[in-house]
């Protein structure tokens, strides 16, 4: 089983930001997506998770095409993304942010509230347990009742990861989870990702910190100007002259 990206293309005007991109992320793998600024990585994430329509190509997840499905439907199937700039609800507390990310509960409609109050109470208790467990796991228990808007950049990234986990996702796309995060917290986020991966959750990560990413993933895909230019084990990919040229080209 896998996430399969097939021949995805997307243009803005005359500029092809995603140019016939194909690759697979086997379910339960840790995979990185790198490339210079503007290569098209975040655009690809948006297409994969249904925030943006491609001009051509297809995305399938665990054997099923996701064509015409929006982000909510894709999340329901177990595929979610986080954003480069975290999109937490800043006025809600950390705990409330996690609660709000849970799939719809029976108590959110009136009928079960009147006719199955026991079930509603049980669901709410299970949800609270899940949130408490995640707050501990992500080391956010100390700030559970702080407004998410007041957190540090690194803590916001952890809330984003927590919100993705609350959906029950099996494959999570992380957009620059280490950007603006101090080295100690980078190690902590990496360790949480490894632990989740041991539990069977797969990750595709966009990241500019190539050292931290290479220590985490088994496979790297490289994009440059919308195209996939290299794939393989991190050490081999980073030594590839075309990859080095893509990064240096951006500086010249
Ligand atoms: N809505 C849009 N309209 C026009 N051009 C866009 C739009 N969104 C993105 N682009 C362009 O598409 C290209 C790819 O952008 P994208 O954000 O996907 O790159 P990226 O690889 O994630 O870059 P970075 O590493 O800097 O975040 C860029 O040239 C960007 O300017």
Automatic annotation (TrEMBL):
InterPro entries reported in the protein's UniProt record: AAA+_ATPase (IPR003593), ABC_AA/LPS_Transport (IPR051120), ABC_transporter-like_ATP-bd (IPR003439), ABC_transporter-like_CS (IPR017871), BCA_ABC_TP_C (IPR032823), P-loop_NTPase (IPR027417)
Cellular component terms per the entry's GO annotation: plasma membrane
Domain of life from the UniProt record: Bacteria
Keywords: ATP-binding, Nucleotide-binding, Transport
Single GO MF annotation: ATP hydrolysis activity
Residue ranges of domain ABC transporter in the record: 3-250
Pfam families named among the record's database cross-references: ABC_tran, BCA_ABC_TP_C
Signal peptide: none
Keyword Lipid biosynthesis: no
UniProt xrefs under Gene3D superfamilies: P-loop containing nucleotide triphosphate hydrolases (3.40.50.300)
Family classification: Belongs to the ABC transporter superfamily.
Name of the protein this chain belongs to: ABC transporter ATP-binding protein
Organism per entry: Aureimonas glaciei
Organism lineage: Bacteria, Pseudomonadati, Pseudomonadota, Alphaproteobacteria, Hyphomicrobiales
